[in-house]
Every structure is written in C-alpha cells, then in structure tokens.
Design brief:
The chain contains 16 helices and no strands. It is globular, with a radius of gyration of 21 Å.
Length: about 450
Amino acid sequence: MDSNPNKPGLIHGSAIFLAASLIIYLIRFIIGVIVARSLGADGKGVYNLVLITASMLLVLFNIGTGSALTYFTASQKNTPRRLVAFAFGAGAVLGVAGGVVFYILYLVFLSNNLLAGIDQRYILWVTLTLPLNLMAVFLSGILIGLQRFLVYNALELTRALLMLIFIVISVIMNAAASGAILSWLFAYVIHFFLISIYILKSVGFQWQLSRKEAQPMINYGAKSYAGNLMTLFTYRLDNYLVNFYSGVASVGIYTTSVSTAEILWNLPNAVSSALFPKISGLDETTGSLLTARTCRILVLISIPLAILFGVLGYILIPVIFGAQFAASAVPFLLLLPGMIFVLVTKILSANLSGRGKPQYPAYTAAATLALTILLDIYWIPRMGVPGAALASTVSYFVGAILALTWFHRISGLSWHSALVVERGDIPLLKQQLGEAYRSVRHLRMHPRA
C-alpha cells in the first residue's frame, strides 16, 4: 500500500501527461488551423462533426470497459495478460455490434437532422474502424493501469504526428474534407497496430478469463459507463444542436472556440489521468487529502492562465484562423470560466472513480447533461454560437458544485479544502513544479511507464 502522497509517482506521471498533452494539443491546434484555412467554416464544420461522432461512438459502445480495465489493472485485482485478452475480445465484439447499430440509426434517423450535411461515406468509414479503435482504447486503459505513462503518451504523440503528416499530404493533394477525415482514420488505425504490438510483447496474452473474473469488471464498467457517456454528451452534444439549428458553418465557428479554450483542459486531464490509478492504490484518507490539495493548487494555477489566454485568444483567433472565424472570439471568452469548473469536476471525479465509486461522477454527469440540453435548446436559437458557449459554462458550474458535494459526502473534507489555497501550498507548489520540470527534462533517464 502506498501511503506517501508526496512520492514522485504522481508528479512524474502528471508531468509526463502534461508535457505530452501540450505537445499533442499544439499539433492538433496546427491541424485545426490547416483545416480552417484550407476548408473554410463549412469544411471545418463537417470535419469536426465526423471526428466528434467517432469520439462519441468510442464512449457509447465502450460500456465502461476502458475505465474498468484501468481500475482492475491498477488495483492488481486481475492478471494483466488476461485483461489484454479481454480487451481484444470485448473491443472486437462491441465494435462490430456498435458499428452496425449506429450505421442503421444514421440511415434511418440522424442523416436528416443532427448529422444533416454529412456525407454518408464518412459515417461508413468511422463505423468500419470502430472495432480497432475500441480495442486501442481498452489496451490504453491497461497501459494507464500499469502506470506506463511514458509509453502511453509516446503512442498518443505518434498518432498526433501521423495525423499532422497525413493532413499536410491531403492538403497538398487538394483532397478536401474527405482527405482530412481519412488522415484521422489512418492515424488511428496505425496507432492500434502500434499499441497492440507493444502490449503483446511486453504484457502478453492469456485467454483464461473466467466469467467469475469478468463479472466484477462488467459491473464496475456499467457504473462508470453512464457517467463517461453523459460527460462526453455534455461536452460534445452541443455541436450537433448547433448544426441542427444553424448549420455546419456555425459548427466550424463553434469548434474553433472550443478547441482554443480547451488548452486549459490539458492540466486537469494530465493530473486526473495520473491520479486515477494512484488513488486506487492509496488508503481513503491519504487519497482524499492528496486530491483536495491537488485540486486547490490547480485552481490557483488555472485562474491567471485563463485570464492570460482570454486576452491572447480574443486578439489572435481571427489572425490565426482567418477573418471568417472572427465570430469564434466571443464564444471562446464565454467558455473560459467553464474550463475552471471542469478542472474541479475532473480532479474530484478521478478520486471518486479511483475509490471504486464511479456512480457519483455519473450522477454529476446526468444532471449536467440535462441542464446543457435545456439551455442549448433555449439559447442557441436565440443567441446562436454564443448561446451554446454560455450554456456549456453554466452547466460546467453546476457540475463542479455537484462534484464538490459528492466529494464532501464521501471524504468528509470541506469544499474549502478543495478550493482555497492553504499556507503550505505555495512552497509545496514550487517544490512540485521543480520535480515536474526535472521529470520532463530527464524523461529518457527515468523511463518509468
């Protein structure tokens, strides 16, 4: 049992995730600029809707398996070799079944409303690659559970670089939206083969997982599934509603605002990714204190960053993306406070899930999703893209309040402990930043994955 919350594990892991996340974000940002400049608002709207649909399918037909594999690997409740076999089998079955179901749903219903204006070929391509992508997600869950953060992020970075290379080639070939979408698909397929080769060589494969062993994972996955699904819907469903009410060009404007604002997500994503498996191996009191301290320090860092990014983003968005994306600046500003609220929710939810209680993040996600839909339906027809941004920020605020409530109920710690900086936090922050810097600087010398 790891009872020392100050050991370099969390700092090292978070540093790796953050460094990789920032590089990947920069690559994706460059891709977004290339797509915006070459395809315009309409083409970027189509491109982003297809990619968002692919991401939604990965969560929709995941049924919580990825989170379960991370939890059961990190807590050493099953043999990794058997979990690898489960990952391949579950990914293949769920991917094929899910792809068929979704494609039929698209033909019968979605093609005329939420996915109106999207070429049928693009949806077919996404469904055909769904099994491979699901297996890659499940194998990634095992890597995170094993805390092989360097390998995981190296593979993620490779995928992003491949996507950038393919995008540049597609622009040179003047392949339009279809080339951009194929670039994304090719990068993901190559990523699947790379992670599969690594897992099979380093972990192995043993098809001996009994029903008795699989049932707890299915139960855990079912509890986390609803929360993961509703969280993604909260973050991404508004894109479909913007398309429904305003068309694909407005989606291009809105996704530019979102992708720019989401730079602030890299910090909580990096820490929560490292925190989740660590919490699984800590006692409850130590894990709660570590989570509260991590949350309040991140809030301290993120508020001035949000102000700085707000000023820079408002000025630079039209310059970088082009004059036709100038309308993205106001929604970008409206989204920034929401990024702070998301930070709180992500960190506290990582603690609850790591303690085997993923149902509480699910409750938060359900309430946030319901509010997001209601506000989107009311504000988007009246305000357009800024209405979608405002709806998201208000919903994220409510989500943070609920996350704080669940965390207080389970841990016994006050809201104050998760939000307000304490006397010893500043020296500790300086120490942790130093350790994080050294971790990133010497990654080759410290190949802990």
